[in-house]
Every structure is written in structure tokens, then in C-alpha cells.
Amino acid sequence: MRILVVAYDYPPSRSPRALRWRYLTRELALLGHEVDVLVPDLGDPGVELPQAPGRVVVHPAFPGPFGWLVGRANRNRSKCDQCRAEPSMAAARLNWRGRIVDVAKRLAGLVLFPDVRAEWTPWARRALRRILVEAAPDVVVTSHEPASTLPLGMLARRLGFVWVADLGDPICAAYTPRRWRRRAWALEARVSALADRVLVTNEATRTLLVERHGQDRRRCKVLPNGYDDRRARDEWGEGDAVSFDADRLELVYAGRLYGYRDPVPLLRAVAASDGVRLTLVVPDPPPTDDAAAIAATAGGRLRVLGPLPHARVLAMLERADVLVNLGDRDQPVRTPAKLFEYFGIERPILHVHSDGADAAAGLLHGLRRGWSCEDDAEALAGLLADLRRRKDEGALHRGLVLGPLADYAHSSLGCRLEGLLREVADAGRHQSHRPAGTAPDRAG
Fold first, then answer.
1. pLDDT category of residue 87 using cuts at 50, 70 and 90
2. Are 312 and 241 in contact (CB under 8 A)?
3. In whole angstroms, what is the distance from residue 325 CA to residue 335 CA?
4. How far is CA 32 from CA 18, 20, 29, 35, 113, in A?
């Protein structure tokens, strides 16, 4: 098949959406398919693929003026990240140029839906039309977020191409600005009605979309996030820059601290727990004054590291006692992508959530992979004390199943995606909704 993926987030971005499609495009290439990827030009795409029967070609398009500035800043920052090891718990400060750009982006985001990243759309639309003519893909896939990729999928659909919308999560979510909620809801309804298939990452999100828009469940498929099962452990490195203490319960959180993930209850619990240490591997320190105040009195129980090479992070996770996952506040249907990355590490997981109906907590319990706890400092401190005692007794893993989870390996997810794309592409050819002469009739 010939497949076109439209993704705002793609390597070198480290976002969960970028990693999802970096690995899925790799798997499609390994299965022999030809993949084109339309992305904003935010720097070197940095796509590394093993020897494969197929191929991946990245098509960068001008991202708009703010995107160009951000890409330039990211390239400069990547040079500094190699030297940054121990940032302060205080919020990172931008220089005056960064502050001006940040204010300008915020102002532009007041008029651009869903945010400033929509400025890419005019250049992306022109590039999309060109690629559709030159590559004549059997299927077009758009990766949300941001929602600005979805009108590009609608354009491809109007031109007669098969369109799969990888939503992952709802478009209208708890973190959607109030001024955009009506528009986000309407876009979500249009995508549900127009896309040949909609992909989401868990069953709770599929149920939510069906209830909101009356979508046929058969057209809404679950394709979860996953972990890289092709990287050999001897490639992970030694992670010798970070030491662990056998006499402590060592917790590690590796990821971003978005505004809808509150680490403060966990930080308070750790600061009050003897024999426990939490290491945060985050691009930026926790942004609140509360976090800084807790760190000042934690007595070495909190350790904050800046961004590290992915291989070293994996090596660190492999040596931790417990991996920490923070749930999304007020968004129980979402399952953070970090949880699935942890499934590739044979370590127990502690999931902190704010809702009793949290989908990630249900998944974790069903798989017997770890523990979940509400985001209450006292409850978390009690659980940490129990886990510390279990470690001392050599029983930390008792009752858990920590082996490989093949259903969430990217090799398995790539095969599932291939079957879905082949099915929808074949159905599109039979329906003949593409204008005659716009694409050759490929069998595979």
C-alpha cells in the first residue's frame, strides 16, 4: 500500500504523538509499505528505520512564522540539553527573546483554532494537494493532536481519498479553552461522521465518542499506544550518571508535567516518607511554587533531572523499583502514553489519579502490573510506606505480572494497523468514491 500520514508532531519532537507515529511508520515500512509523512519543518526529522522492504519519506512544509521561531529555538536548546543534568526545582525562566515569542504565541492562540499551531495550515494544505497528486496514496491518516491536522484529512476526503482520523483522545476535552469548546465539539462530530475510520487509544474514549455523536462503533477502532519491542536491552546504555540506593524505595517518573497532571500530592507524600526517593526525568521542572517549597524541605528525597537521551532513560527505568505514572486530572477516559511505554519495562507501576473511574487505573489492575492511588498526599504516603516495607521483605513484586505484554508492543500494533488500513483501502476502492484517474489501483 501507499500511505500518507499527516502529523504535526513527529520526530525530532519527543511528544507521545510523535513517538506513536515514528514507531507505527517504522512498522508499516517493515511490512513492505510505502509511507509518506507530511510534517511542519521544525528541524531535522531524524527518522531512523531498520532495513525494510518498504520506505518512509518525510515531506516538511513551512510551519508558519511562530513555528519557524520555535523550531530554531528547539535546535539551539537541543545543543544545551546535552550539558543540562540537574535543573533547579524552580520553574525554568525564558530569556527576553523567549518571553516575547511566548507572549506573541499566546496572543495568536486567542484567534487561531485550536492554538498557534494552526498557522501551519495554509502551507500544509498546498503541500497536501501536491503529495496527493504525486503519491496517489491508498489511504490518508491524520494524527491528532493538534486538531489543525483534521481539516487536512477532510480535504483529502473531499478529493476522494480514503481517510483515517487517528484521534487518540477526544477533540473536546477538559483542557480545551472555553472559547473553543463549541467549535471543538462540532469538529469532533464532523470527523466522526466523515472519516472512513476513527482511531482512539482505549475503549472508554470510543464509548464517549459513540455516546456524544451516535457514531457506528464499527467505524471507531481502538489502537492503543505501545512500547518499542525492537530495541535490544544492550542498546539502552548503562545510565551510569544516575545512582540508586538499595536501602531506599526508588521511584522514577519520566515524562512531561502538563498543566493537567498535578505532581504536588505525590511530592508531598515522598517528602514525608522515610526511605523513599523520587527521581523526576522531565524537560522542565515542576512549574508551581508549591513544588519548589516541598523540594526545599524534602531532605534529598526528591531528585530532578533534565531531559536525557532516550536510551539512558530506559536504562534508568530498568533499574528503578517502581515506575510512576500521573493521570490526567478531570479526564478519566484518557490513558497516558507513558503508561504503555512502561509496559516494555519489567517493573511495577504506581498510577496516581484523581477520578475513581480512571481508565488507566482499570487497565493497570486488569493486567496486575502495579498499584493505583488517588492524588491525596496522605493516601499516597500510606501506600509508599507499605511498598517500602514490601521491598525490605523481598516481596515488592508479589501478586504482580511483570512479563512482556505482546499486545502493546509496536510490532504487534503495526500489524493491527496494517490490517485496518488494508481493510478501509479495499472498501474505498470498491465504493469508488475517488475521482477517476486520480490514483492507480494497487493490490498491495
1. very low
2. yes
3. 10
4. 21, 19, 5, 9, 37
157 and 420 Cβ atoms separated by less than 8 Å: no
273-300 pLDDT, tens digit per residue, is 999 999 988 876 665 566 667 766 777 8
- Which residue has cell 536525557? 308
CA 363 to chain centre: 17
Distance of CA 8 to CAs 11, 62, 176, Å?
A: 10, 11, 18
pLDDT score, position 232? 65
Please report, as a single letter, which amino acid is at residue 387: L
- 313-343 pLDDT tens trace: 888 899 999 999 998 776 778 888 889 989 9
Closest CA to 362 of 202, 229, 255, 164: 202
What is the pTM assigned to this prediction?
0.84
Bridge pairing between strands 34-40 and 220-222: unpaired
Residue 314's nearest CA partner among 232, 389, 394, 409 is: 232
Tens of pLDDT along 145-186?
899 999 999 999 999 999 999 998 899 987 888 899 999 999
Q: How far apart are CA 87 and CA 284, in angstroms?
A: 8
382's CB contacts (< 8 A; 6+ apart) are none
- The structural domains of the chain, ordered by start, are 2-226+409-431 (3.40.50.2000), 235-392 (3.40.50.2000)
b/e per residue 68-92 (b: at least 16 CB within 10 A): ebbbeeeeeeeeeeeeeeebebeee
Is the pLDDT reported for residue 373 higher than 70?
Answer: yes
* DSSP-assigned letter for residue 132: H
- Helix H or strand E segment including 140: strand 139-143
Judged against a pLDDT cut of 90, whether residue 250 lies above it is answered with: yes
- Provide the β-strand partners of residue 250: 277
Residues 186 and 254: their CA atoms lie apart, in Å, by: 35
Length, in residues, of the chain: 444
CA distances from 68 to 94, 108, 122, 181 (A): 18, 14, 14, 28
